[in-house]
Amino acid sequence: MRRFCSGCHGYQLMKSEIAAVVSFLKRLVKLKNKVEVEKMDLFAERLTVALQEKFEGHWVPEKPSKGQAYRCIRVNAFHKYDPELLRACRESGVHYGDLGLPWEITLWVDPGEVCGR
């Protein structure tokens, strides 16, 4: 049985996991660059919305590994830009290059767990 429901109530099931990954990225960016605080706050808000919308329909608490690859945030030699990070940058006025992300980072956002490499 899926506990996820569409609409804003469904977002409550993934709220803490998305908050964890956004908080991690926000701290990472602050450490590497001097992105304006207001822009960074807006970036975090826009990234939260982008991830909520992406994960809708792909969040199954009973089977956390189901959809894991889809919920992965990945930047590496083959995937230089993550679409949700790009969207949040575009909507907040932050330049993607100003994020100062490492040349390789992978974050998995799963029900009950967020981990990275």
TrEMBL record:
Q: Which GO terms describe its cellular component?
A: cytoplasm; nucleus
Q: Which InterPro entries match?
A: Anti_prolifrtn (IPR002087), BTG (IPR033332), BTG-like_sf (IPR036054)
Under Pfam families, the record lists:
BTG
Q: Give all residue intervals belonging to the Anti-proliferative protein domain.
A: 14-117
Question: Of which family is this protein a member?
Answer: Belongs to the BTG family.
Give the protein name, as stated in the record.
B-cell translocation gene 3
